[in-house]
User: Fold ABC transporter permease subunit from Pseudidiomarina terrestris.
Amino acid sequence: MAAKQPALGASNYRLFKDRAARWGVSLGGVMVLVALLLIFFYLLYVIEPIFRGVEVNHERSFTSPVSGEVVAMGVEEQSEIGYQFSADGELVFFALKAKEGTDWEPGKALLRQQLTASKPTAFTQTQPQNNRYAYAVEGGAVLLVEPKFNSRFRDGELFITPKVGEVNAGELIQVDPEGENLTKLAHEYDGESMLFAAQTADNRVIVNSIQASRNFLSGAVELESKFTELPITGAISEIVVTPDLRQVLIRQNNRFWVYDVSRTGTVKERQLITLDARRFGEVTSMQLLAGASSVLFGHANGKVSQWFEVAGDDGRRYQFIRDFQAAETAITDIVVEYYRRTFYTISAAGELGVFHTTSEAELYRGQANDVAAERVVIDPRANTLLLLNDQRLHVFDLINEHPEVTWSGLWQEVWYEGYPEPDYVWQSTSGSDDFEPKFSLVPISFGTIKAAAYAMLFAVPIGLAAAVYTAYFMSAGVRKVVKPTVEIMEALPTVILGFLAGLWLAPIVEHYLPGIIAVILLVPLAIVLFAFLTSHLPQSIRNSFTDGRAALILLPLVALVGWFSFQMSPLIENWLFDGNVRRYLTNELGITFDQRNSLVVGIAMGFAVIPTIFSIAEDAVFSVPRHLTNGSLALGATTWQTLTKVVLLTASPGIFSAVMMGLGRAVGETMIVLMATGNTPIMDWNIFEGMRTLSANIAVEMPESEVGSSHYRILFLAAFVLFVFTFAFNTVAELVRQRLRDKYSSM
Assistant:
């Protein structure tokens, strides 16, 4: 009878499972790489727009509705209506584009109104956000007007109609009590208060502070005037008033005066600057930047210089900060945006320039659509540019979303308004519209490194020492309890650790700071001292603890030393620090102490990182082949020599991976640093001060950022930087691990 052939079904099934597992693992690895690449490119997709240049696209052109000289122009917020003030005192509203449902055509006059009965003697306008204009008429009086717009919806569509808003019920305000005509005029207002500065026909420079008050009996509004004549002789070139009504700025050729105005209307000279013509060039124009903290001077050599106040020994003084080469010919006019630190220049050759002061960026320069600019204006949203040339108006679509973002602004020191010197600053938001955002990524990147460094300083010695002892010295029975216990700590939510660190640990550290420092110093010292003493015990006693249980004896010792340190803390504080260690650090040593500081973060985040380091390092040490250790011991090496010369070297790739994995965990940690530190983006290695990390910054500010804004995209850039950080750490770790593995794999 023929022999029965063995069945091959089991072998084929096992082969199928092996191949399926191999393909499944490979597919999983590929999907992980694809996911990482998708994250990488999505971050780049969100970040890329912040580095685009300015686009000035021509939309339409039409004849100006004002035939004479135009002294000012404006555009309403929706960029549907523009307006012009003529030198003859006329205000004209006109359509900027055609609109369905109306008879609007580009350039069609929608409303004309003659504001003054005779030709005005001077004209001025406030900062763009205040949107008020003033004509000086004969006799030293001033008429104030505000272009206004009514909005209404009809069939779901917005319709806007213009109107002339009269200030002070259309009545003239007497600026010069002597009745002289005004040849130069500046005006600003703040609620019920108004400030005028002017030069009269007889070359007097005057300041008139006017406050409105309501009569208690009649209820009528009365204007109270505080008049001052300044000691400046000769004709002045320009005069400007700040929107807070606290300063009057006067230019006479290259001389620049700064006068302070008190709340009572008293005027006092603060500073006189003479701009060196050889260094800066002859001054041809002057303008306040948005926020009114900086003064821009246009020069005959085509440069624009920025000046703002800097605190010094003799108080706050205007000083030169930076300049821009805006053109090759003289700067005839400077136009600023409503809220951002972007400004536009017009040169004598009609060249248009767009610049941003904080980022020191030249955004655009040239003749838009080959049209020489005589006068330009920007709408409130900075989306539309209206240009006047030879009695024709040209409308341009302006794309300038993120002028404040440059690589230098993100990674180099920037001199911000009001700061004594250039610095790295992250301050993205504020309560005021004229706030200057500060987007330096250096402080929060530094905070990430600082938090990770202090956490690793706490976690690496404890994690590695525990891993080596557990894997090499501890008995199998004790190891079965210790290893899972430490590893399960990794499952503890970090929000719980952050909560405990911020609300429980931080007050303890502040109250028992000498005790905390004593614990850090005395516990290792006590362990070493205890080991030294036990080494001199009789051999019979020491042999009874060779099974790895010796560490359990240290638990009461550590608890005793900790208890002793905390009990001695008040005594040490009274003896060495006059009863208040925090005051001693601040007043005597000049060290800032915050309750939620780097020490708290280091302890809490180190506690979270220890399980990661312990688990990987313990597996690496425990996986060292037993024949290596047995061979070393057989050749006469001691247990310690075997550990240092054989075991640690063989396990070094795994140990290094454990450290780098712990570092990656510390770099990306969010909740602990969010709750256990003050979230202050400062650059200081002081262990008693806090920090702000990249991850915590994203968690705090992303919910409040406007989608598509510079703030929003820079937060994504911060995420990209964090991604690069972790990728770099992991890449270096893998390279070092492979080298260590190749070096010691032959053992």
The CA atoms of residues 169 and 419 lie 42 Å apart. The two ends are 56 Å apart (CA to CA).
